[in-house]
Amino acid sequence: MEDFSFRRLGYALAALVVVLIGGMVGFHQLLGEGWIESMYRAVVTISLTGIDTKPKGTNAQLFTILILLAGVAIFTYIAGAIVEVIARGVLTGAWAERRRRRAIDRMRDHYIICGYGRVGRRVADEFREAGVPYVVLDFSEDAIEAAQEHGDHFIEGNGTEDEDLQAAGLDRARGLVASSDSDSDNLYISLSARTARPDLLIVARASDEDAAKKLQLAGADRVVQPYSAAGRVMAHLVLKPQVAAFLDSVTGASAPDLRFEEIEVTPTCGAAGKTIRDLNVRKETGALIVALRKRDGTFDTTPTPDVSLDAGDVMIAAGTPDELRALEDLFAPQEALAR
């Protein structure tokens, strides 16, 4: 499919036009016919539909044979090109492939999901609900069919291959999710991505604690163990069912009323160094700061109104989408507000 060039078809059509014009001029000169009659004779000769009358004169007959052979060669070439187009799917699959590739090439600050099994598809569901751009990278037929069914941008390849990661836009991505069923694949994916992008956020899946440690050494920022997480959730549903139900309802991307968001306090936001009370966050935005991650990595899980919001701190806030947007505006860099 990649070897096919539409230039071939363009060249053939150009040759057809040249031969048609040449035939019209030749018949006009040799037979003394009008331009319309000469064009008609050239068309029926080149298109192999037959000739109304035998041309008079040896020169005219030899010229007719030449035009006839040129028409046969051109139409044979065009027919072969068309068959190649149809056989290789250029008219359908190739155009769709090119559009998809161009769309991925234009993506910025997106996420790459390496492995589109049950975990990867759940991640994609959350991204889709949140309106976050992402690219799926997998090679299995089942994964590709699922990605096509959901209208996902996807690259048919393997996350362990550097070329496929680059095709998914690794150099422009904001983060990567290594969600393959294989711990070794996730290890290679994390290592390759971290080597190419030291600043990339990488979240990886691990089957056990030993694999989780290796993934962290390979460069994963966060490691999730689905089986351990499922066990904790099931235990909480038994021991603290209402708490578990509340957390499940507010942490999902489809939660209608309450969302959680993390917002970094930047040096240029104008609010750095002030307290929650000084900013009157609750009254001004409606959002609630439920936790604060300080620059040293420690968490303040119950921040008081008098706690200082310093540059580099990350707020964990809760509220409706409108309230969270208002909070983001409050802590937006001053130059962004000026623009």
Architecture overview:
- The chain is elongated, with a radius of gyration of 33 Å.
- It folds into 3 domains: 6-87, Helix Hairpins; 108-224, Rossmann fold (3-Layer(aba) Sandwich), CATH 3.40.50.720; 257-338, Regulator of K+ conductance, C-terminal domain (Alpha-Beta Plaits, 2-Layer Sandwich), CATH 3.30.70.
- It has helices at 6-31, 35-46, 58-87, 90-106, 118-130, 141-150, 162-167, 183-196, 209-218, 226-239, 241-251, 276-279, 281-285, 321-330, 334-338; strands spanning 111-114, 134-138, 153-156, 175-178, 201-205, 222-224, 259-264, 274-275, 288-293, 299-300, 308-309, 314-319.
- A 6-stranded parallel beta sheet has the order 3-2-1-4-5-6, with helices on both faces.
- The two termini are 46 Å apart.
- The protein has 15 helices and 12 strands.
- The chain is an alpha/beta fold.
- α1 (6-31) packs across α2 (35-46) and α1 packs antiparallel against α3 (58-87).
- The mean pLDDT is 85.
Distinctive features:
14% strand, 339 residues, Rossmann fold, single chain, 4-stranded antiparallel β-sheet, alpha/beta, 6-stranded parallel β-sheet, Alpha-Beta Plaits
Question: What is shown here, in short?
Answer:
With 339 residues, the chain is α/β, with parallel strands linked by helices. The protein has helices at 6-31, 35-46, 58-87, 90-106, 118-130, 141-150, 162-167, 183-196, 209-218, 226-239, 241-251, 276-279, 281-285, 321-330, 334-338; strands spanning 111-114, 134-138, 153-156, 175-178, 201-205, 222-224, 259-264, 274-275, 288-293, 299-300, 308-309, 314-319.
